[in-house]
Amino acid sequence: MNAKPGPGSEAVPNLRGARRAGFGALIGTTVEWYDFFIFGTAAALAFGPVFFPSASPTVGLLASFATFWSGFLARPLGGVIFGHLGDRIGRKKTLITTLVLMGLSSTAIGLLPGYASIGLAAPVLLILLRMVQGLALGGEWGGAVLIAAEHAPPGRRMLFGAFAQQGSPVGNILATLAFLGVSTLPADDFASWGWRIPFLFSAVLLLVGLIIRIGVEESPEFLAAKEHGEISEAPALETIRTAPAPLLLGIGAAAIGVGGAYFMGTFMVAWTTTDLGVSRSTILSALLLATVVQFFVQPIGALLADRFGGTRIMVTALVATVILTPLVYALVGTGEVGLIYVGLALGALTSPAYFAVLAGFLAQAFDARIRYTGISLAYQLSATLIGGMVPFIAQWLLAGSGIAMVAGYHVALTLLTLACVVMLARRTRTRPAPQSEPADISLNVSADRHVAAEVD
């Protein structure tokens, strides 16, 4: 099983190895997204008084969201560093490193003293640990997508790439359950130690993730590229030099994928618990329901993509999201518990189908030799420039203009995503397969390109 692949067999994965790689990607990204999501929830509910106690509640919340954004600033750097390693030394070793970094930084946040204990050092250390989280996630996502997709049987790359995407709702479900468990504590207990428990639980998830990920084999396409001497010396520079258009369009195509969760999660928690007077447990329960809906919709989207074409499914899902988004905000804005549940569940019916396909869609836009770096840069630059700013800008728009402007902002990002998806699909459909790629890789890439690039 671990033998060096011979000529003509480099990119032909076995089904057992493919399933193991898919499951490893799912578990790893679950751990990573759990850690990233608990920070967003804690920023909305706890970090203001703990780390910025001298500020007013509104300023403290904005400061918490700015700290939340600092993790996004580090994500492109993580994409460059770990993309370089992933394209040079392999996907597997790189993914083990990112998993350890995320787990340790999240556990350290759970142990971090507040401003009352160590003064200014507390928010400074919080920002530094958040940036380590960003570095780890910046390298994790692209590698997890590739190790699953590059193990996939022919014609199933969209489905196996979605294994990594499924880590987002699973991680979100675990994060929401963790905060639901501690949200019932008295306010003083929650502020002093209750919010720390979800972060400390990261150590347990880290151990589970490591045990599973160590058993995953290296990507057959990476091994094939290595055997044929197709390893890039400087993947980031080569990506910028040879694939600037796919990189820029990829940033736009990921916009609502990286931002949507923070509209419906981080911002929604802050808005409903402050302006609308909704209890923490109510909004967290409603978000849990929405995430469960996402969990079931995403695999359906991936299956439909393999059947009807990835871009067709993405476009349909994005158009439906544009139509439904104003209704989602109107329902939640009533402050009625039942309508909040309906609104958030409705919001989870459409965009997850797009998100499920996004990973495989971006992967096909870049050649194998720079694929880890290419998709990591596209996704993580989008996260930094667009996703990380969502809670801050949404809160600012709410304070200055009202919730209608927030809904308009959400719709605008979705339309940007839609336009870039269509343009990138057309470009990818006409991109010739590189002459230097091994034959099996070229066939797989061409097949995926044919399936996923239909826009008609």
What do these coordinates show?
- It is a single chain.
- This protein has a single domain, classed as MFS general substrate transporter like domains (Growth Hormone, Chain: A).
- With 456 residues, it is mainly α.
- It starts with 14 loop residues before the first helix and ends with a helix.
- The longest helix has 32 residues.
- The protein is built from 22 helices and no strands.
**Rg, Å, rounded:** 21 Å
Briefly note the CATH topology name.
Answer: Growth Hormone, Chain: A
Q: Quick one: biggest sheet?
A: none
CATH class: Mainly Alpha
Give the termini distance in whole angstroms.
42 Å
Tally of DSSP helical segments: 22
3D shape:
globular
Contiguous uncertain segments of 5+ residues: 1-13, 433-456
Helices and strands, in N-to-C order?
Answer: HHHHHHHHHHHHHHHHHHHHHH
Rounded average pLDDT: 82
Query: Judging by the overall fold, what is the CATH architecture?
Result: Up-down Bundle
Number of strands: 0
- What would CATH call the homologous superfamily? MFS general substrate transporter like domains
The class by helix and strand makeup works out as: mainly alpha
